[in-house]
Specification:
single chain; mainly beta; disordered N terminus
Protein backbone atom coordinates (compact mmCIF):
# COMPACT_ATOMS: atom_id res chain seq x y z
CA UNK A 1 0.00 0.00 0.00
CA UNK A 2 1.29 3.44 -0.85
CA UNK A 3 0.60 6.36 1.51
CA UNK A 4 1.17 10.01 0.65
CA UNK A 5 0.79 12.22 3.72
CA UNK A 6 -0.61 15.40 2.24
CA UNK A 7 -3.92 17.05 2.96
CA UNK A 8 -7.01 16.95 0.80
CA UNK A 9 -8.85 20.27 0.46
CA UNK A 10 -12.43 20.12 1.79
CA UNK A 11 -13.60 17.05 -0.01
CA UNK A 12 -12.47 17.94 -3.55
CA UNK A 13 -10.63 14.67 -3.98
CA UNK A 14 -13.52 12.88 -2.33
CA UNK A 15 -15.82 14.43 -4.89
CA UNK A 16 -13.58 13.50 -7.79
CA UNK A 17 -12.82 9.99 -6.66
CA UNK A 18 -16.26 8.97 -5.47
CA UNK A 19 -18.75 10.50 -7.81
CA UNK A 20 -18.51 8.35 -10.90
CA UNK A 21 -19.55 5.04 -9.43
CA UNK A 22 -22.94 4.17 -10.90
CA UNK A 23 -24.11 3.59 -14.45
CA UNK A 24 -26.53 1.54 -16.52
CA UNK A 25 -27.15 0.12 -19.94
CA UNK A 26 -30.75 1.25 -20.24
CA UNK A 27 -31.43 4.75 -21.52
CA UNK A 28 -33.42 7.09 -23.68
CA UNK A 29 -32.77 10.17 -25.77
CA UNK A 30 -32.69 13.63 -24.20
CA UNK A 31 -33.18 15.74 -27.32
CA UNK A 32 -29.49 16.81 -27.56
CA UNK A 33 -28.17 13.87 -29.53
CA UNK A 34 -27.35 12.07 -26.26
CA UNK A 35 -28.97 9.10 -24.58
CA UNK A 36 -29.61 9.15 -20.87
CA UNK A 37 -28.15 6.27 -18.86
CA UNK A 38 -29.50 5.03 -15.54
CA UNK A 39 -27.57 4.15 -12.45
CA UNK A 40 -26.91 0.56 -11.44
CA UNK A 41 -26.90 -1.66 -14.52
CA UNK A 42 -23.84 -3.48 -15.84
CA UNK A 43 -21.80 -1.66 -18.52
CA UNK A 44 -18.99 -2.87 -20.79
CA UNK A 45 -16.10 -0.38 -20.80
CA UNK A 46 -14.72 -1.50 -24.17
CA UNK A 47 -17.54 0.10 -26.18
CA UNK A 48 -16.68 1.20 -29.74
CA UNK A 49 -15.46 4.85 -29.69
CA UNK A 50 -12.30 6.93 -29.81
CA UNK A 51 -10.00 5.30 -27.28
CA UNK A 52 -9.76 8.34 -24.96
CA UNK A 53 -13.39 9.47 -25.31
CA UNK A 54 -15.57 8.75 -22.26
CA UNK A 55 -18.28 6.15 -22.68
CA UNK A 56 -20.72 7.96 -20.39
CA UNK A 57 -20.46 11.29 -18.59
CA UNK A 58 -22.42 13.80 -16.53
CA UNK A 59 -22.10 17.25 -14.95
CA UNK A 60 -23.37 18.11 -11.46
CA UNK A 61 -23.24 21.07 -9.10
CA UNK A 62 -20.79 20.60 -6.24
CA UNK A 63 -23.42 21.90 -3.85
CA UNK A 64 -25.53 18.80 -4.57
CA UNK A 65 -22.87 16.38 -3.30
CA UNK A 66 -22.94 15.34 0.35
CA UNK A 67 -22.07 11.64 0.66
CA UNK A 68 -18.53 10.58 1.61
CA UNK A 69 -18.45 7.00 0.34
CA UNK A 70 -19.12 5.16 -2.92
CA UNK A 71 -18.66 1.64 -4.22
CA UNK A 72 -18.87 -0.40 -7.41
CA UNK A 73 -17.85 -3.78 -8.78
CA UNK A 74 -15.24 -4.33 -11.49
CA UNK A 75 -14.47 -7.46 -13.52
CA UNK A 76 -11.67 -7.77 -16.08
CA UNK A 77 -8.78 -9.84 -17.38
CA UNK A 78 -7.27 -6.67 -18.90
CA UNK A 79 -4.12 -5.51 -17.09
CA UNK A 80 -4.35 -1.91 -18.29
CA UNK A 81 -7.02 0.69 -18.98
CA UNK A 82 -9.03 3.60 -17.63
CA UNK A 83 -11.96 3.16 -15.25
CA UNK A 84 -13.16 6.68 -14.48
CA UNK A 85 -12.32 10.38 -14.42
CA UNK A 86 -13.56 13.48 -12.61
CA UNK A 87 -12.65 17.17 -12.62
CA UNK A 88 -13.54 20.63 -11.36
CA UNK A 89 -12.70 24.11 -12.69
CA UNK A 90 -13.26 22.83 -16.23
CA UNK A 91 -10.34 20.44 -16.00
CA UNK A 92 -7.84 22.46 -13.95
CA UNK A 93 -8.15 20.00 -11.04
CA UNK A 94 -8.72 16.37 -11.98
CA UNK A 95 -8.63 12.74 -10.84
CA UNK A 96 -8.10 9.52 -12.83
CA UNK A 97 -8.50 5.90 -11.66
CA UNK A 98 -7.12 3.21 -13.94
CA UNK A 99 -5.35 -0.14 -13.90
CA UNK A 100 -1.72 -0.71 -14.83
CA UNK A 101 -0.22 -4.19 -14.70
CA UNK A 102 -3.56 -5.14 -13.15
CA UNK A 103 -3.01 -2.88 -10.11
CA UNK A 104 -5.05 0.25 -9.25
CA UNK A 105 -3.41 3.51 -10.32
CA UNK A 106 -4.61 6.92 -9.07
CA UNK A 107 -3.43 10.16 -10.68
CA UNK A 108 -4.48 13.47 -9.15
CA UNK A 109 -3.88 17.09 -10.10
CA UNK A 110 -4.88 19.92 -7.73
CA UNK A 111 -3.41 23.41 -7.83
CA UNK A 112 0.37 23.13 -7.68
CA UNK A 113 0.32 19.39 -6.90
CA UNK A 114 0.47 16.43 -9.26
CA UNK A 115 0.53 12.95 -7.71
CA UNK A 116 0.58 9.43 -9.11
CA UNK A 117 0.09 6.46 -6.77
CA UNK A 118 -0.15 2.76 -7.55
CA UNK A 119 -0.91 -0.02 -5.09
CA UNK A 120 -3.21 -2.75 -3.89
CA UNK A 121 -3.93 -6.23 -5.21
CA UNK A 122 -4.08 -7.24 -8.85
CA UNK A 123 -7.65 -7.01 -10.10
CA UNK A 124 -7.39 -8.53 -13.59
CA UNK A 125 -8.23 -12.11 -12.61
CA UNK A 126 -11.67 -12.21 -14.24
CA UNK A 127 -13.52 -12.13 -10.91
CA UNK A 128 -15.91 -9.48 -9.64
CA UNK A 129 -14.16 -7.22 -7.13
CA UNK A 130 -15.88 -4.65 -4.93
CA UNK A 131 -14.08 -1.31 -4.85
CA UNK A 132 -15.03 1.30 -2.26
CA UNK A 133 -13.62 4.81 -2.18
CA UNK A 134 -14.04 7.00 0.90
CA UNK A 135 -12.66 10.13 2.53
CA UNK A 136 -11.02 9.98 5.97
CA UNK A 137 -9.74 13.40 6.93
CA UNK A 138 -6.62 14.07 4.90
CA UNK A 139 -6.75 10.82 2.98
CA UNK A 140 -8.69 9.22 0.17
CA UNK A 141 -8.85 5.46 0.74
CA UNK A 142 -9.52 2.81 -1.88
CA UNK A 143 -10.71 -0.48 -0.40
CA UNK A 144 -10.73 -3.68 -2.43
CA UNK A 145 -13.03 -6.47 -1.27
CA UNK A 146 -13.18 -5.00 2.22
CA UNK A 147 -9.44 -4.46 2.72
CA UNK A 148 -7.41 -1.29 2.27
CA UNK A 149 -5.84 -1.28 -1.18
CA UNK A 150 -4.53 2.26 -1.60
CA UNK A 151 -4.30 5.37 0.60
CA UNK A 152 -3.62 8.76 -0.98
CA UNK A 153 -3.14 12.16 0.68
CA UNK A 154 -2.01 15.56 -0.52
CA UNK A 155 -1.02 18.84 1.13
CA UNK A 156 -0.28 22.16 -0.52
CA UNK A 157 1.43 25.30 0.77
CA UNK A 158 -1.20 27.33 -1.05
CA UNK A 159 -4.17 28.67 0.89
CA UNK A 160 -7.11 26.32 0.63
CA UNK A 161 -10.04 27.77 -1.24
CA UNK A 162 -13.74 27.06 -1.12
CA UNK A 163 -14.64 24.80 -4.04
CA UNK A 164 -17.79 25.71 -5.91
CA UNK A 165 -19.17 25.38 -9.42
CA UNK A 166 -19.56 22.17 -11.35
CA UNK A 167 -18.06 18.70 -11.31
CA UNK A 168 -17.62 16.76 -14.55
CA UNK A 169 -17.56 12.98 -14.39
CA UNK A 170 -16.68 10.44 -17.06
CA UNK A 171 -16.51 6.65 -17.27
CA UNK A 172 -14.02 4.90 -19.55
CA UNK A 173 -12.28 8.07 -20.74
CA UNK A 174 -10.89 11.48 -19.79
CA UNK A 175 -11.73 15.12 -20.52
CA UNK A 176 -8.19 16.51 -20.43
CA UNK A 177 -5.14 16.16 -22.66
CA UNK A 178 -3.61 12.77 -21.88
CA UNK A 179 -0.15 14.36 -21.80
CA UNK A 180 -1.06 16.03 -18.49
CA UNK A 181 -0.89 12.69 -16.70
CA UNK A 182 2.37 11.61 -15.04
CA UNK A 183 1.95 7.95 -15.97
CA UNK A 184 0.95 7.21 -19.55
CA UNK A 185 -1.02 4.05 -20.26
CA UNK A 186 -3.21 2.36 -22.87
CA UNK A 187 -6.75 3.58 -22.12
CA UNK A 188 -8.79 0.75 -23.65
CA UNK A 189 -10.36 -1.41 -20.92
CA UNK A 190 -11.86 -4.79 -21.75
CA UNK A 191 -13.87 -4.94 -18.54
CA UNK A 192 -17.26 -4.44 -16.91
CA UNK A 193 -18.62 -2.41 -14.01
CA UNK A 194 -21.88 -2.97 -12.14
CA UNK A 195 -23.84 -2.21 -8.95
CA UNK A 196 -22.58 1.33 -8.67
CA UNK A 197 -23.57 3.32 -5.59
CA UNK A 198 -22.16 6.84 -5.60
CA UNK A 199 -22.67 9.84 -3.38
CA UNK A 200 -26.16 11.27 -3.52
CA UNK A 201 -26.21 12.12 -7.22
CA UNK A 202 -29.54 11.46 -8.90
CA UNK A 203 -29.01 13.20 -12.25
CA UNK A 204 -28.77 10.83 -15.25
CA UNK A 205 -25.57 10.08 -17.11
CA UNK A 206 -25.34 10.63 -20.85
CA UNK A 207 -23.77 8.71 -23.73
CA UNK A 208 -23.19 9.43 -27.40
CA UNK A 209 -23.59 5.74 -28.23
CA UNK A 210 -26.86 4.65 -29.81
CA UNK A 211 -26.76 1.48 -27.74
CA UNK A 212 -24.51 0.32 -24.92
CA UNK A 213 -22.88 -3.05 -25.42
CA UNK A 214 -23.78 -5.62 -22.73
CA UNK A 215 -21.34 -7.66 -20.70
CA UNK A 216 -21.09 -11.43 -20.97
CA UNK A 217 -22.48 -13.26 -17.96
CA UNK A 218 -19.33 -15.38 -17.63
CA UNK A 219 -15.89 -14.86 -19.16
CA UNK A 220 -12.62 -16.70 -19.68
CA UNK A 221 -9.14 -15.43 -20.66
CA UNK A 222 -8.52 -14.94 -24.35
CA UNK A 223 -9.31 -12.69 -27.30
CA UNK A 224 -12.83 -12.90 -28.70
CA UNK A 225 -13.67 -12.24 -32.35
CA UNK A 226 -17.40 -11.92 -33.11
CA UNK A 227 -16.99 -12.15 -36.88
CA UNK A 228 -17.16 -8.42 -37.65
CA UNK A 229 -13.54 -7.29 -37.85
CA UNK A 230 -9.87 -8.04 -37.31
CA UNK A 231 -6.68 -6.68 -35.71
CA UNK A 232 -3.69 -5.54 -37.78
CA UNK A 233 -0.04 -5.07 -36.83
CA UNK A 234 2.81 -3.73 -38.92
CA UNK A 235 5.34 -6.55 -38.70
CA UNK A 236 8.18 -4.04 -38.22
CA UNK A 237 7.15 -3.79 -34.53
CA UNK A 238 8.23 -7.38 -33.93
CA UNK A 239 11.95 -8.13 -33.45
CA UNK A 240 13.60 -10.81 -35.56
CA UNK A 241 15.66 -13.30 -33.59
CA UNK A 242 19.41 -13.57 -34.06
CA UNK A 243 18.90 -16.78 -36.03
CA UNK A 244 16.65 -14.85 -38.46
CA UNK A 245 13.34 -16.51 -37.75
CA UNK A 246 9.93 -15.43 -36.57
CA UNK A 247 7.62 -17.64 -34.50
CA UNK A 248 3.87 -17.12 -34.08
CA UNK A 249 1.87 -19.36 -31.72
CA UNK A 250 -1.89 -19.59 -31.17
CA UNK A 251 -3.90 -21.60 -28.65
CA UNK A 252 -7.62 -22.37 -28.63
CA UNK A 253 -10.35 -24.86 -29.48
CA UNK A 254 -10.13 -24.40 -33.24
CA UNK A 255 -13.01 -26.82 -33.82
CA UNK A 256 -15.33 -24.17 -32.33
CA UNK A 257 -14.09 -21.34 -34.61
CA UNK A 258 -15.03 -20.20 -38.08
CA UNK A 259 -13.22 -17.85 -40.46
CA UNK A 260 -9.64 -16.60 -40.84
CA UNK A 261 -7.35 -17.13 -37.85
CA UNK A 262 -4.50 -15.06 -39.27
CA UNK A 263 -3.06 -13.79 -42.53
CA UNK A 264 0.21 -12.17 -43.63
CA UNK A 265 1.07 -10.08 -46.66
CA UNK A 266 3.09 -7.07 -47.78
CA UNK A 267 1.53 -4.05 -49.52
CA UNK A 268 1.29 -4.52 -53.27
CA UNK A 269 2.05 -8.24 -53.06
CA UNK A 270 -0.04 -11.36 -53.15
CA UNK A 271 -1.09 -13.01 -49.93
CA UNK A 272 1.92 -14.69 -48.33
CA UNK A 273 0.14 -16.90 -45.79
CA UNK A 274 -3.26 -17.55 -44.19
CA UNK A 275 -4.88 -19.98 -41.78
CA UNK A 276 -8.63 -20.52 -42.05
CA UNK A 277 -11.06 -22.73 -40.14
CA UNK A 278 -14.45 -24.06 -41.18
CA UNK A 279 -16.86 -24.80 -38.36
CA UNK A 280 -19.16 -26.84 -40.63
CA UNK A 281 -16.53 -29.21 -42.01
CA UNK A 282 -14.28 -29.05 -38.89
CA UNK A 283 -11.24 -28.44 -41.10
CA UNK A 284 -8.27 -26.07 -41.09
CA UNK A 285 -6.98 -24.79 -44.44
CA UNK A 286 -3.40 -23.55 -44.78
CA UNK A 287 -2.68 -21.14 -47.65
CA UNK A 288 0.98 -20.66 -48.56
CA UNK A 289 2.70 -21.76 -51.76
CA UNK A 290 0.23 -24.61 -51.74
CA UNK A 291 -3.18 -25.14 -50.18
CA UNK A 292 -3.47 -27.86 -47.54
CA UNK A 293 -6.63 -28.87 -45.69
CA UNK A 294 -6.46 -30.90 -42.47
CA UNK A 295 -8.85 -32.04 -39.79
CA UNK A 296 -9.44 -29.46 -37.09
CA UNK A 297 -8.97 -31.09 -33.72
CA UNK A 298 -5.74 -29.41 -32.62
CA UNK A 299 -5.35 -27.02 -29.68
CA UNK A 300 -2.11 -25.25 -30.66
CA UNK A 301 -0.81 -23.85 -33.94
CA UNK A 302 2.77 -22.64 -34.43
CA UNK A 303 4.07 -20.86 -37.53
CA UNK A 304 7.83 -20.40 -37.99
CA UNK A 305 9.04 -18.08 -40.75
CA UNK A 306 12.62 -18.30 -42.01
CA UNK A 307 14.41 -16.80 -45.01
CA UNK A 308 13.20 -19.35 -47.55
CA UNK A 309 10.85 -21.62 -45.60
CA UNK A 310 7.63 -21.52 -43.59
CA UNK A 311 6.69 -24.26 -41.14
CA UNK A 312 3.27 -24.92 -39.63
CA UNK A 313 2.99 -27.20 -36.59
CA UNK A 314 -0.37 -28.43 -35.30
CA UNK A 315 -0.44 -29.99 -31.83
CA UNK A 316 -2.81 -31.50 -29.31
CA UNK A 317 -2.22 -33.73 -26.30
CA UNK A 318 -1.75 -36.85 -28.40
CA UNK A 319 -0.41 -35.94 -31.84
CA UNK A 320 1.59 -33.47 -33.90
CA UNK A 321 1.41 -32.59 -37.59
CA UNK A 322 4.14 -30.62 -39.41
CA UNK A 323 3.85 -28.88 -42.79
CA UNK A 324 6.83 -27.21 -44.48
CA UNK A 325 6.61 -24.75 -47.38
CA UNK A 326 9.67 -23.56 -49.35
CA UNK A 327 9.95 -20.30 -51.25
CA UNK A 328 12.60 -17.55 -51.36
CA UNK A 329 11.72 -14.28 -49.69
CA UNK A 330 9.40 -15.35 -46.84
CA UNK A 331 11.33 -13.39 -44.22
CA UNK A 332 11.68 -10.35 -46.48
CA UNK A 333 7.93 -10.26 -47.06
CA UNK A 334 7.34 -10.57 -43.31
CA UNK A 335 9.63 -7.63 -42.51
CA UNK A 336 7.84 -5.40 -45.00
CA UNK A 337 4.34 -6.65 -44.31
CA UNK A 338 1.31 -6.76 -42.06
CA UNK A 339 0.01 -9.40 -39.68
CA UNK A 340 -3.76 -9.70 -39.35
CA UNK A 341 -5.35 -11.66 -36.51
CA UNK A 342 -8.95 -12.66 -37.16
CA UNK A 343 -9.31 -11.72 -40.81
CA UNK A 344 -8.05 -12.11 -44.37
CA UNK A 345 -5.95 -9.16 -45.52
CA UNK A 346 -6.98 -7.54 -48.79
CA UNK A 347 -4.63 -6.28 -51.45
CA UNK A 348 -3.55 -2.62 -51.43
CA UNK A 349 -3.02 -0.10 -48.64
CA UNK A 350 -6.57 0.25 -47.30
CA UNK A 351 -6.41 -2.73 -44.92
CA UNK A 352 -9.80 -3.93 -46.15
CA UNK A 353 -10.35 -7.44 -44.84
CA UNK A 354 -12.83 -10.28 -45.18
CA UNK A 355 -13.78 -13.71 -43.87
CA UNK A 356 -13.52 -12.52 -40.28
CA UNK A 357 -13.04 -14.95 -37.43
CA UNK A 358 -15.80 -15.98 -35.06
CA UNK A 359 -14.42 -17.58 -31.91
CA UNK A 360 -12.01 -17.33 -28.99
CA UNK A 361 -8.22 -17.44 -29.27
CA UNK A 362 -7.10 -18.36 -25.75
CA UNK A 363 -3.56 -17.08 -26.24
CA UNK A 364 -1.50 -15.45 -29.00
CA UNK A 365 2.28 -15.12 -28.89
CA UNK A 366 4.84 -13.63 -31.26
CA UNK A 367 8.50 -14.41 -30.56
CA UNK A 368 7.49 -16.01 -27.27
CA UNK A 369 5.70 -12.91 -25.91
CA UNK A 370 1.96 -12.48 -25.40
CA UNK A 371 0.37 -10.32 -28.08
CA UNK A 372 -1.79 -7.46 -26.75
CA UNK A 373 -4.45 -6.65 -29.33
CA UNK A 374 -4.98 -3.26 -27.71
CA UNK A 375 -1.72 -2.24 -29.45
CA UNK A 376 -3.10 -3.12 -32.88
CA UNK A 377 -5.31 -1.24 -35.30
CA UNK A 378 -8.43 -3.26 -34.59
CA UNK A 379 -12.18 -3.35 -34.88
CA UNK A 380 -13.72 -2.33 -31.57
CA UNK A 381 -16.04 -5.35 -31.54
CA UNK A 382 -13.01 -7.47 -30.63
CA UNK A 383 -12.52 -8.16 -26.91
CA UNK A 384 -8.75 -8.15 -26.44
CA UNK A 385 -8.55 -9.94 -23.09
CA UNK A 386 -11.75 -11.94 -22.53
CA UNK A 387 -14.08 -14.41 -24.22
CA UNK A 388 -17.59 -15.51 -23.29
CA UNK A 389 -17.46 -18.71 -21.26
Amino acid sequence: MAVFCKAVADGLLLTLSLALLGWGAEGQGNGRGMREVSGRATVYLGQDRDIWRPLIHTTVNLSEISSIKSSFQLRTFDPEGIIFYGDTKNGEDWFVLSLRAGIPLMQISKGDMLVSVVGGPKLNDGKWHTLEVSNHGKFVILEVDGSNGLVVGMQSKQTEEFISGQLRLALGGILIDKEKMIVQFEPQMDGCVREGSWLNISVPWETEAEELRPCYQNIQPGSYFPGTGFAIFNTSVFPTEADNEVKIELWGDFSQMDGTILSINAPGQELMFALMVNNNTKEITIFAEDKITTKNYYKRLAITIQADSLTVIQEDDESTAIYIFSHPGYLTTWREGRLAIGGLLGEGEDNVGSQFLTGCLKKIQVQGKDLDLDLAVKHMSISSHSCPA
